[in-house]
Design a protein that fits this description.
163 residues; Hypothetical protein af1432; 9 helices; 73% helix
């Protein structure tokens, strides 16, 4: 699947917000790596990669509407914006539905219901741990409570937990 048109559209949507653009590109890279490392089938990998690119699409509207980029606001506002963007780019309805579901739940960590969801959450954490300057005890707790994939655990340990 070609992701360049969506990445370019997201860059335009974020209007030069380098921090948010860098964030989604890093999440995309980690998600793709986790998905491929876990042997996710091509159709599910397409969903994962697409979701990684647009997972935080709700931040801009959340900040405008609520003055906050808090996860629940992102989950509330993001799906409709993503749906419109993905429809404009000609994505299949089934893929759009799952991507919107993932956006609506990517800060909700109970009831993770698929490898695409798990990989997206792990990829987002790998980026957020660094961007937020998370301390080792918190990282260890995230490892214990959130990470499940072999690839994600390997990346987490290599980046943050090996001395």
């Amino acid at each position: 699947m070609q992701t360049a048109p969506l990445i370019l559209k997201m860059c335009a949507y974020e209007e030069g917000n380098v921090k948010r653009i860098n964030h989604f590109l890093k999440v995309y890279g980690f998600a793709k790596t986790i998905g491929e490392g876990e042997g996710i089938p091509a159709a599910l990998l397409d969903i994962l990669e697409t979701a990684a690119i647009v997972h935080d699409i709700g931040i801009k509207v959340s900040v405008e509407k609520y003055g906050s980029s808090s996860g629940p606001y992102q989950e509330k506002e993001g799906p409709a914006i993503a749906q419109e963007m993905l429809e404009e780019l000609g994505y299949a309805p089934a893929l759009i539905d799952r991507v919107c579901y993932l956006i609506a739940h990517h800060h909700t960590y109970d009831n993770i219901d698929g490898l695409d969801y798990q990989a997206l959450v792990e990829a987002d954490f790998l980026v957020n741990i660094f961007e937020d300057g998370m301390e080792r005890p918190a990282i260890e707790k995230v490892r214990e409570n959130i990470f499940k994939t072999k690839t994600g655990l390997e990346m987490l340990d290599g980046l943050f937990l090996r001395d």
